[in-house]
Q: What sequence folds into this?
C-alpha cells in the first residue's frame, strides 16, 4: 500500500552510513539523493528516505511512528538487528516471534526513528 516512507534526520552524513549498511544487507542501494535527502530502495518498488526537514527546524521523532523493513527470512531479521545495534541503534525489542508467523526485531536509528525488521515466513 505504501510507496515509501521518509524519516527526518539532523545529521544526513551519519544517518547515511547507517542506512547504506542496512540497505546493503537487504540487497538494495541508494536510488535518489540530493543535498538535503537520500532515498534507498528500487525505483517503483518502494523504499525509505531520509531528509533534513524542509522547514529548517530540527528533525524530531514521531510518537507512535515506525517504519517496517520487510526481510526475506528470520536469519535476515537477525542480521539486520545485529547490524543496526552495531551501527549505534538502540534496542526496542530483540528478534523473536511476536505472534504465530510474525517474526520481528525493533530498534531506533541514530536519530531515534523507530524501525523494525520483520518476516512472515
A:
Amino acid at each position: 500500500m505504501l510507496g515509501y516512507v521518509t524519516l527526518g534526520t539532523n545529521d544526513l552524513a551519519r544517518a547515511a552510513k547507517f542506512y547504506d549498511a542496512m540497505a546493503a544487507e537487504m540487497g538494495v542501494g541508494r536510488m535518489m539523493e540530493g543535498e538535503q535527502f537520500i532515498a534507498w530502495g528500487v525505483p517503483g518498488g518502494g523504499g525509505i528516505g531520509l531528509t533534513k526537514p524542509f522547514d529548517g527546524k530540527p528533525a524530531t521523532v514521531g510518537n507512535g511512528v515506525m517504519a517496517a523493513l520487510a526481510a526475506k527470512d528470520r536469519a535476515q531479521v537477525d542480521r539486520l538487528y545485529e547490524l543496526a545495534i552495531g551501527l549505534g541503534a538502540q534496542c526496542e525489542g530483540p528478534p523473536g516471534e511476536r505472534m504465530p508467523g510474525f517474526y520481528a526485531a525493533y530498534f531506533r536509528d541514530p536519530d531515534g526513528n523507530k524501525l523494525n525488521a520483520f518476516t512472515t515466513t
Notes: The chain has one domain: 4-53+64-119. The two ends are 20 Å apart (CA to CA).
